[in-house]
Automatic annotation (TrEMBL):
<keyword id="KW-0813">Transport</keyword>
<keyword id="KW-0472">Membrane</keyword>
<keyword id="KW-1003">Cell membrane</keyword>
<dbReference type="InterPro" id="IPR003593">
    <property type="entry name" value="AAA+_ATPase"/>
</dbReference>
<keyword id="KW-0547">Nucleotide-binding</keyword>
<dbReference type="InterPro" id="IPR027417">
    <property type="entry name" value="P-loop_NTPase"/>
</dbReference>
<dbReference type="GO" id="GO:0005524">
    <property type="term" value="F:ATP binding"/>
</dbReference>
<dbReference type="InterPro" id="IPR050086">
    <property type="entry name" value="MetN_ABC_transporter-like"/>
</dbReference>
<dbReference type="Pfam" id="PF09383">
    <property type="entry name" value="NIL"/>
</dbReference>
<dbReference type="InterPro" id="IPR018449">
    <property type="entry name" value="NIL_domain"/>
</dbReference>
<keyword id="KW-0029">Amino-acid transport</keyword>
<feature type="domain" description="ABC transporter">
    <location>
        <begin position="2"/>
        <end position="242"/>
    </location>
</feature>
<protein>
    <submittedName>
        <fullName>Methionine ABC transporter ATP-binding protein</fullName>
    </submittedName>
</protein>
<keyword id="KW-1278">Translocase</keyword>
<dbReference type="InterPro" id="IPR045865">
    <property type="entry name" value="ACT-like_dom_sf"/>
</dbReference>
<dbReference type="InterPro" id="IPR041701">
    <property type="entry name" value="MetN_ABC"/>
</dbReference>
<dbReference type="InterPro" id="IPR017871">
    <property type="entry name" value="ABC_transporter-like_CS"/>
</dbReference>
Amino acid sequence: MIEFCGVQKTYTTGNASITALQRIDLKVNEGEIFGVIGHSGAGKSTLIRLINLLERPTEGTVKVSGVDLMALSENDLRQFRQHVGMIFQHFNLLGSMTVAEYIAYAMRIVGQKSAQAIDARVDELLELVGLSKHKHKYPRQLSGGEKQRVGIARALSNHPTVLLCDEATSALDPQTTHSILQLLRRINETLKLTIVLITHEMDVIRTVCDRVAVIDGGRIVEEGAVTQVFLHPQHPTTKRFVQEAEGAHDAVVWGDNAAPRGGLYRLTFQRETVHQPLLSRVARSFAVDFSIITGRFGAIKSEPCGQVVVRATGEADQVQGALSQLAQAGVCVEEVSDATVA
Ligand SMILES: Nc1ncnc2c1ncn2[C@@H]1O[C@H](COP(=O)(O)OP(=O)(O)OP(=O)(O)O)[C@@H](O)[C@H]1O
């Protein structure tokens, strides 16, 4: 659906130039919610703005539905942009227009003329985003969450196939963030819209995204299904994001003398293993004790999952037997040297 191939973006200001993105190869599938996470200055905004050519790549190609954006004429680009909606951190509403006028304006500037059709679409969109009662209000009369709902309604007004979200929840409190993320999920499911969002919060990724790319210093350092990246992060930047999201403390590392006996294992429970009493069952079957050192439980999108770091004590063959049985039951078993969950 969206394809970056060897993309580089260099900004030049005066004599100085800065490379914001380097060698980006990326595919976003149709109908998925794809997240890009990175710290400030990593290149997230640049990346998302390349998808509607608000920025042009210095090298490489960006294709949407097979169309190379750089090959589009001005006229074709204008048409194309109607299929890509965008929402922003600071909502970008117009203070002089009511909610209804603002959405109608977005439809009129792309050539929609029928007042009746515009009015019907405005009502439909306000119903979709839960703002029907606020139709005639001005932005100053709305909360932050309501403003973002107006932004979403406006972005959807011309039936886009892609919705770009530029830090759309960063200005909102946690509860409002949650409700906006649930709305994005509903829109993705009901309208089959492809959503690309950028954020610096792993919790946003965990709540709504199917796949994620981690960007650091203008490069993609890790990419994959959110369950995989969240439960088994590889790159130090990804690990830091996950630990921040979990409120994790520093790693528990014992010096040689202080080290309690028994190996440390990270056990990851997903799908049906979440609901089974596997740990107590293998502890009974084998002469093994488990001490839980640390753990985290919750859901990734709608999938429940859990991860614990345990110390297993017992005879070596018994410990191996217990771990093998856990693995056979579908638990991911990894030996680790410290007790951080990520
Ligand atoms: N128009 C521009 N002109 C020159 N440099 C720019 C421009 N836009 C971005 N940059 C630089 O490119 C780099 C990446 O910026 P970008 O805004 O894409 O990062 P970001 O990850 O979105 O950061 P933030 O989360 O703080 O918005 C930064 O070093 C920034 O200073």
